[in-house]
Amino acid sequence: MAAVGAAPFLPGLIPANAQAASSGRPDFALATGGTAVGIFVDAADDPAVVRAAGDLQADVERVSGTRPDLLRTLPRSAPLLVLVGTLGASPAIDRLAAQGRLDVSRVKGRWEASVTQVIERPLPGIDRALVIAGSDRRGTVYGIYDTSERIGVSPWYWWADVPVERRDTVTVPSGPFTRHEPSVRYRGVFINDEQNLTTWSHRTQETDKNIGPETYRRVFELLLRLKANYLWPAMHPYSDFFNKYRENPELADRYGIVVGSSHPEALLRNGVHEWEPWIAEHPNPDGSAPVYDYTVNPAVISDYWRARARQNAAYESSWTLGMRGLHDSALETKYATTIPEKVVVMNDIIADQRRILAEEVGAAAEPQIFIPYKEVLDLYNAGVQVPDDVTLIWPDDNHGNMRQLPTEAERARPGGNGIYYHLSYWGRPKSYLWLDTTQVAKVWQELRRVYEHGTDRMWIFNVGDLKSIETGLSFAMDMAWDVNRWEAGEVEDFLAEWAGRQFGHRHAHEIAAIRTEYYRLAGELRPEFIAAGLVSVVHHGDEAGRRMAAYDQLLARVRAVGAELPEVYRDAFYELVEYPVHGAYLMNLKYYWADRNALAARQGRGAGTNRFADLALAAHTAEAALTNRYNTEVAGGKWDGIVNPYPSQIPKAPGRPAVTRVTRQETSGLGVAAEGNETGAARPLSFSSYTRDQRFVDVFNTGFLPLDWVAEASHPWVVLSVSGGSLTEQRRVWVEIDWERAPEGAQEATVVFTGAGQRHDVPLRVDNGRRRVRGFVEAHGYVSIDAAHADRRVARGGCRWRTVRGLGRRTGAVEAVPPTAAPITGDFDARAPELRYRVRFTSTGTFPVTVFRLPSLDERGQRRLAVGLDDRPVTVLSGQAVATGNRGDAWARQVEDGVERLTADVTVAEAGEHVLRIFMVDPAIAVDQILIDTSGLPATYLAPPESYHPVFNPEPAPGRGLEAPDQ
């Protein structure tokens, strides 16, 4: 296929902090007609640059089929040349800069900046050159990989099998193209929870190791292609510790990767693997083994740290200060039992470590970082003294919510601030290790918040086993490089651009929409968090069934795109799109059928109970087959062992659900369960001409022998999806109203079900009162509002509410910004930004209003908002501000649910239109939904569907849940 440039990749590739200029000159041909342009890199340049130039050589061959020469000396003559070099390390580059022919004004002296520019007659005998020049070694490396991506080589070409389109002619624009300094200085990942990664690495990469140099070689290249520069390597018992193989730190230095260590691994020491061998060689005078407690064995521990500092002094490293217990456990201090005593111990530890680094590493011992993770945050807040040149790394709560952010004084520290943020997590209250399920809009919201708090020195992302986090990691790295690239309403634009780079532009927007809906469903409930009986199969049209119907539709869209992609894209599509969606679907599906099975058993169903058990176990079997395909078939079995929802040694996704079976009885009987009722029809079916509802009635057989049944409506304007037939198991009957024929006003009707000598009456309450209204309308005993659908937003005091698309359980949530604003605790009408919602009430009384806020924390502050109706006094609601780390408490519930429910009462004295008002109290509060309960709603996991609104929801979709097979 002949083409010019990289059509699938170029649009949108250049970020906001880069500058590209069009010279009007022809593009530069890297390869054409079976000939590739030679690549020159000076022999004196950094080994990281020389190595990356070799990757460019390979990338040009991947695209064109022709391998260019990699030159270490300048040719005497050449019509075209790629000239790669670092300022100060490449005489040819320096000469062009000194002559003013290469514009380095935005590059020289900067951190990891680069310029790419075509220069005519740059050197004697060279007619034209594509110059890639960096401010430092990584700046040059990123310039090289930019060129690779611009010609069509995805950063994920190896790790996700994204194919490289072959072209006879390969060109890049003549430029100049300047990539400025990144927003965040150190940008990297923590490979954690790595049992699957270890399994895969041992099987396919290094059969004599459990993650070694060959695996890290692949990891380093991926990081650099993603414009990352930093790594916390694998550290758990089932992986080999990083320094076990001296090739690892040497290799990292040769690639230009800064290696650090996680919060329990002080001074690059892996306590899981290294402490026991150390103390075996350094016993106490009495022969006993020293314990890892600084109040007991400070000298032994200090020597332990010193040995690693001396060993790795020559490499570009990051040095973690402080101390926790071995293997990510809490700090042990036998002789310091109170918080003040532990603060003194931590200060002594830091002073000792600083002394070691000064003596063994010297001025090169930077960056030094302190990570106040879990209980260490309490010690820091109680008075631990961290030297000003040490970077403070602020942790999230392990579920994507920053626990606290730097004060103005902390922002002024020369060491700066960073974050440790989880895209994958192992621990309390629940783990999410299997799929990439954190909404990218949530990542955007928190990263914008931390950046606006001056936290820009280091961002580390926990990526678990790396595979399945491809999309989230790509977004996080894009944000770390250029935090201003994407605004609140543009996260789906990132997904479209990213999908275009992997699969071409034809399907980019559809894949982005698929990923957005996938993230939304995970925002309602992560597939790793599903549990029996969590989501109702009875209320609101079968809320669990409605989720499954949304998944079903999403999977159909995935299959439609997959069917249109060329065969060469199938592996990448399976890894990046199909497996996550299909896997999440099946994880939810097996528990949906298991919940229907449990309900059927309670209802006394016969054959239908067993049918639901069969469906649940079939979904679990299908999920296992899906994962097996990933590990054994995709990419020819390349990923053997990399994906497993149920690893043996770490927290697991929910496995095979429990089901109930009933013994066959040669009987039959007719039963019904109307929506809103576990059995029978005590709660009438409710219909409103505003919401145009469909309601279900489950008709079922209490035995195993077939029976005939009939359904008959009391009025001709009551419409049934089916009015009878033969029944062996069950049938779901949908009831709706023909609103053109129904009388106006409040009506009552009945649907009568008969069969097997039995009769069941299902009552209906129908309100046909639709008229012109201006706001949300009460119906069915509630008003349900998507928070982004405010009738009016009022900005005050430099603060406002903005919509973050793709955030929360609906299509977007609203956030109070700027996140650095001061709290507003009074005079809300005059000082606080406000959301106003018109609501038409048909009921009067005092009603609970529940605000579904998205979790966010501030352990040195509060998380508050205020609610009021009309001009009456407001109620200030306080949300959870502290991450407790305990199972079952308020914090645990909100991070598992993805929302925190805050409730106040409002009084409606007379029916008609009113205005519900939401005020910011603390900044960075995000509101997703609002629910006003006017008649004692049943408690459900999800809020009811949004109420009618003439602008935001003029034609509510009635929707149906996933249908069970009819028998």
From TrEMBL:
Hydrolase recorded as keyword: yes
A GO MF label: hydrolase activity
Any Pfam family: Glyco_hydro_115
Residue ranges of domain Gylcosyl hydrolase 115 C-terminal in the record: 775-946
UniProt keywords, alphabetically: Hydrolase
Domain of life: Bacteria
Protein name, as recorded: Gylcosyl hydrolase 115 C-terminal domain-containing protein
Organism: Streptomyces sviceus (strain ATCC 29083 / DSM 924 / JCM 4929 / NBRC 13980 / NCIMB 11184 / NRRL 5439 / UC 5370)
